[in-house]
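Q: Is it fine to ask for two folds in a single conversation?
A: Yes, each is treated on its own. Send the first.
Q: Here.
A: Result:
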Amino acid sequence: MAKRTSNAILIPIACVLLGFVVASIVLVVTGRNPGGMFLSMLQAFTGINVQVGTFNPRYIGEFFVQSMPIILSGLAVGFGFKVGLFNIGGEGQLMMGSLASIAVALSVHLPAPWHVILVLVAAMVAGAFWGAIPGFLKARFNVHEVVMTIMLNYVALYLCNWMIVSVFGSTDHIKTAMFPQTALLKDAGLTALTNGSRLNWGFVPVVLAVIVYWFIIERTTFGFSLRAVGFSKEAARCSGMKVERNIVMSMVVSGAFAGLAGAVLTVGTFNYGRVLSTAEGYGMDGIAVALVGGNNAFGIFLSGLLFGMLKAAQPLMQSQGIPKDIANIIQAAIVLFVAMKYGIDYLLKKIRPPKQETFDEEARV
């Protein structure tokens, strides 16, 4: 058991390191210095510019801002994976959560903090509803969730854009009116503390979501039944578990996490609703984060921070003469190596062969 736990930790670390090795090789082949990439990531993570010897906390704030929706999207995908579902619709669920947060922020008048709490709850409900649709169709008619969620992503995109322009009265077809201060997660103190970054109180619901994810999966009978269905639907059904209900409920909870990500983006990072020409990719990032994190709460949290750091480092990489797309290469390489985890596990066993048990002479007799 200890050995299995050790490999569960070492394999993701090995995948991450191999991803950085691949990116370094690409940079060397194209005539660039990989050191600039690592210096950019260090500055994005710590705020320290080693070359100049300065410290700017703004980079740390932006690092957390980039990480928060990615972590929540990873939780959404990971929760679906636990029951054997591939929720590729996190992007659409996020958009519907964003739309609900826009509606509550502009239409409801409440004092703080009740207004922003209602915004977050509404976003989770909207995301849960959007996740329940493919969950119900999967449970009732065995409609493949991948196909359904991809279709719903496009429905959510164009529905949100139409609502923002036609219902909420966007005059420039780009954004809505500014939200009232009572509906925002932004805080002047956090902005001042991080030298003008967009850091906001969104990290509080993110941390709570990670704890809730862990508690549901590891400490409740509902979480146990979800994992049982994920291992074998027929065995779970024979044990008396309600497989169809678990499928629907897993998509509901998954959609709630994604909807919360939409709210954190809308009333945290921004303070207005946005018309999007295409999806921003948080749903795809969530898939990678869940895979790298092994669908575990703490693993998803750490991998979400890693991917957020890579996004935050992209502008810094450009200032070093390194294309920002190198961050995407690192992410893709990491996911590729995660998909090869059984091969990496085999190599780790070769490098660290299991210790042979020794017996003293009395035991042999």
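Q: Second one now.
A: Result:
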Amino acid sequence: MIATTKGTMSTNKKEESPADAIYDEVDDDMKVQLKDFFDQKVDGGKKSVWSMSVETFGMVDGSETKNDILTPKFDQAMMAIQTMVKVAKKGKEEMWKLDVVPMDQFNATMDDVLRSFIMWSRKEGDGNGNFNVSKAFRRLESYVSWVESHRDDLKEPFNVEEIKKVADAWKCNFTYDSKDRAVWWFDMGQMDLVAIKKNLSSRDQLRYVFYLCQFLMFDRKAQENGMVIVQSMGEKGMIDTFTMIPMDLSSQMDRLTIGVLPIRMKLCYTYNHLRWVSIMMTIFKPFMSSKMRSRIVVIPRKDDPAKVIGDDLGKDCIPVGFGDLKGKSKRDLFYDFLDKKKLDAEEEEGLEC
């Protein structure tokens, strides 16, 4: 049966300026660099990097209220969210069409979109397996709003060659680990920075990340088991890292992947990092939930990342050539998908001829 939660709404921490944080190990030069970074304006000049980041981190798990609708049955949850969508669409039909989402590329429908949000809303650690329909709908509204605000960038049809061109520069990998979680491998040391900074437009890179998010949204294993992120920082300095991708674009990508995408991030491993990464973690930790803090693992430089990551994810899922992990997996889920889409398009074109 459908019930309401007995929890309370999570409260937001007071937004303190990171410039006020005092750490003995941070010298004056780094404090200036951090202030310059956090004070940058993003989101069309409406917000600072700091306020946008704190807001995004607060969206990771979504909020819960005592009046939220819960049900242990998936079918009931789907019926409830479908009803919520019907009500929300009144007067906003164009926005809720989601006609710029490339569902046809994934053989998906609006019900597949709703399913991904319902699966995201499952109450973890609850033996009843409750789905929080209200929480799912709030996340869905954020997704619809994000899509609408980027309509101009997304309205042109997506094609495999366009996506693959950016994918070749970003050089991300995707596999399943031993627990059937999707794993997003991100190595900053391998990225083609010339292409990213000079040859690829912000629009094309945003479209690539959006397409990638749809790929994860409609992946059943990712829906059911969540996602792990493994990122090698490539021993990049703070300035090099911050300037790799335009800050406004980076903030919008973070909002999409962290605050909007309906796939639960189970873990985020970071290694090959310099000292500034630990400093950034120290600054942001007070603004993260305890659950979020427990998911972010910064592997100490004295430890062997191949052992830490391999012991948890399974060595067979580590991609060949990723960082210095000595991976063996030659398969890439996203590239396999793109190759199949390209082959299907070629076969279809041949039939038309």
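Q: Anything structural to flag on that second result?
A: Two points. DSSP finds 17 helices and ten strands in the chain. The two ends are 55 Å apart (CA to CA).
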